[in-house]
Design brief:
CN hydrolase domain-containing protein, about 15% helix, Vanin_C, Nitrilase/N-carbamoyl-D-aminoacid amidohydrolase, hydrolase activity, 8-stranded mixed beta sheet, 24 strands, alpha+beta, C-N_Hydrolase_sf, about 500 residues, hydrolase, binds 2-acetamido-2-deoxy-beta-D-glucopyranose, 2 domains
């Protein structure tokens, strides 16, 4: 999912920065977690049409790097570590199922309680085996993303076995501190070209695992975060308070990686352990969030690869507390399953620009403005009858920085209908400049109100504020019932404020 030519031109510099924020209140009940913003090894082998031997050699180079982070984490008594999507396989842009096949392993099913480490049956599956051994050796839950192959045949009861006789899944795997496969989650919403090489499970996969430190985790990968399942089943029906989230997220100025992760944590009232690839700023952004508050985050602002590990103590959230913050309650999992079936999309349906989806690539409306000192303004932006509103007050504004209020109300890139309001810092006063990724700002909006005409009965509004302070949390000044930020006394420069709402629900769906 990454531009191969750019990737090949990078020189891999594996830098390690440990950010450890230690909770001083010893009475608190917590576990210790690590997430790695990891840049996969550069390819030194032909990535496409590789033999299994070459594919193993490449993938083991990444697992070797993982081992260093696991060892480092163990010195901080980490209980669970999470690695990103495509961290082991790399993102070489496979076009066919056969090309990715040498990179896949038959990952044991959870029900079989297999410890692949030192089990000869897994000698041909060195990734599964190595990760199992690392988890066991360092007494830590290890969560990583691999490719799973499940061989199949058609039968009288099912005829969904692919022509090549195998299901291929983009898979998040959890190994217990004993090295046992305790969680195996098949990515339920493939993105871009993934549909050409992987299968989606027939309904969204719902997977949780329990740990030796008595905390239960739900599992999710990348694009899944923008769909109602599996997250509603995990957060709302099962009351899961901890999620491991592995991703290769392509940043957009209306949905930066860390802010999307932070929103899930707020929405679910949950801890989110999120690991992204650190290859460059376009995809980077990892963190650990608790009920919407960033505990620690990592980001690679450069165009050269860097890997970092973030470690923190995570408070254990009582699962009997507020289930989540959704205004809409889905009552039982039977309904969820039928919704899931209804919303299932067919593989290969998605076509998109792998460089991401900037707002000038679809028909957004841009209202570009330049805030001045000591100003009170109201800006409107309207797209297909949907209006966004941004009112602000400033004190002193240094420099010349343009912003845009961007609105959108239409089908979003064939995925779903979406309503979007984004107020984003621009590189210049053009729509292209206001579609760019911006990672710094000087402009402080001292008081602001940000809202849109969302239909909250149909749309799930992801609410995000991205400032120069990577610990900022404005959810106490967010009203979820009206999808409005009303922020006073803000003293941090802003890169982006966004209300990004895919349509999840249907008219007359509740009966
Ligand atoms: C991989 O194999 C396909 C056909 O099997 C061929 O068209 C393609 O050129 C090959 N790619 C490389 C990089 O060898
Ligand atoms: C090793 O793996 C095989 C295949 O999954 C399984 O049948 C066997 O029970 C395992 N052996 C041990 C000692 O766990
Ligand atoms: C299974 O059946 C489907 C539908 O008829 C067909 O497309 C597919 O090729 C079959 N798979 C195998 C392995 O024969
Ligand atoms: C594990 O968690 C359950 C429910 O949250 C609790 O009842 C139990 O006492 C905990 N066990 C330990 C060993 O902490
Ligand atoms: C933008 O709108 C025009 C005119 O309605 C339409 O032809 C075009 O396909 C739209 N582009 C996108 C990316 O939706
Ligand atoms: C945009 O900026 C250029 C200079 O960078 C200026 O010449 C032009 O007038 C500006 N356009 C608007 C609409 O502000």
């Amino acid at each position: 999912m990454r531009d191969k030519l750019l990737l090949l031109s990078f020189i891999l510099t594996l830098t390690t920065i440990v950010k450890a924020s230690i909770d001083s209140s010893s009475a608190a009940s917590y576990y210790t977690a690590a997430v790695v913003d990891y840049a996969p090894s550069e390819f030194h082998i032909p990535p496409l049409n590789a033999t299994k031997e070459l594919a193993d050699e490449y993938m083991l180079s990444n697992v070797k790097n993982y081992a260093k982070y696991i060892e480092q984490a163990s010195k901080s008594h980490v209980d669970i570590i999470v690695f990103p999507e495509y961290g082991i396989i790399g993102g070489q842009g496979f076009q066919t199922r056969d090309q990715i096949y040498p990179y896949l392993e038959e990952i044991p099913n959870v029900i079989d309680q297999i410890i692949p480490c030192k089990n000869k049956s897994y000698n041909d599956y060195p990734i599964t085996q190595s990760l199992s051994c690392l988890a066991k050796q360092y007494n830590m839950v290890v969560v990583a993303v691999m490719g799973d192959v499940v061989y199949c045949t058609n039968s009288s009861s099912s005829s969904d076995c692919p022509e090549d006789g195998r299901f291929q899944y983009n898979t998040q795997v959890a190994f217990s501190n004993q090295g046992m496969v305790i969680g195996k989650y098949h990515k339920s919403h493939l993105y871009g070209n993934e549909g050409q090489v992987f299968n989606e499970p027939s309904v969204p996969d719902i997977v949780v695992f329990d740990t030796h430190f008595n905390v239960t985790f739900g599992m999710m990968i990348c694009f899944d975060i923008l769909f109602e399942q599996p997250q509603l089943e995990l957060l709302q029906v099962m009351g899961v308070k901890n999620i491991v989230y592995s991703t290769e997220w392509i940043n957009a100025n209306y949905a930066y990686a860390r802010q999307v992760q932070q929103y899930l944590s707020y929405f679910g009232g949950a801890n989110i352990l999120a690991s992204n690839v650190g290859t460059y700023s376009i995809t980077s952004g990892s963190g650990i969030f608790s009920s919407g508050t960033p505990l620690v985050t990592d980001f690679n602002p450069n165009l050269s690869p860097a890997s970092t590990i973030a470690i923190t103590k995570v408070p254990i959230i009582d699962s009997s507390t507020n289930k989540d913050r959704s205004p809409r309650i889905i009552k039982d999992s039977v309904e969820i399953q039928s919704l899931a079936a209804k919303y299932k999309m067919s593989p290969g349906r998605y076509t998109t620009n792998m460089q991401g989806v900037p707002p000038n690539s679809f028909n957004s409306t841009f209202e570009i403005f330049k805030p001045e000192s000591n100003q009170q303004e109201i800006i409107y932006s309207t797209n297909n009858g949907f209006q966004c509103k941004f009112s602000y007050e400033t004190l002193t504004i240094p420099g010349d920085q343009y912003f845009a209020l961007i609105s959108f109300n239409n089908n979003f890139n064939t995925f779903w209908d979406a309503q979007i309001c984004t107020m984003a810092a621009c590189l210049d006063n053009t729509t292209a400049g206001c579609s760019a990724l911006v990672f710094d700002s000087q402009t402080i909006f001292t008081n602001l109100v940000f809202s849109g005409d969302f239909d909250e009965t149909l749309y799930h509004v992801n609410a995000m504020v991205y400032t120069t302070n990577d610990k900022s949390d404005y959810y106490s000044q967010y009203d979820q019932t009206t999808s409005t930020f009303d922020i006073t006394g803000m003293n941090e420069p802003v890169m982006s404020i966004s209300l990004f709402a895919p349509q999840w629900y249907q008219v007359n769906e509740s009966n």
